[in-house]
Write a structure and sequence with these properties.
9% of the residues lie in helices and 27% in strands. The protein is mainly beta and 74 residues long. It is elongated, with a radius of gyration of 21 Å.
């Protein structure tokens, strides 16, 4: 099975703002996750380059969020 190399999205006007959606298969192919940022940059030649910036990963089990529990729970 061949993957698609081209995706389309309809541009809409939403209360005065021009908006477009990014197709989900494209986000999946990029490995995007909630919290990531997509950056679109216009080059001098008029092409648009998109890059994916990963969100910062939180360290689990460290820092001020971890509370030490002493004594009995009632």
């Amino acid at each position: 099975m061949r993957e698609r190399s081209e995706y389309q999205s309809k541009v809409t006007a939403d209360t005065g703002l021009t908006r477009g959606r990014i197709p989900c298969p494209l986000l999946n192919a990029l490995g995007a996750r909630p919290g990531d940022h997509l950056v679109f940059r216009l080059t001098d030649s008029g092409e648009v380059v998109m890059s994916l910036l990963r969100r910062a990963k939180r360290k689990s089990g460290t820092g001020s969020r971890q509370k030490s529990v002493s004594g009995k729970r009632r």
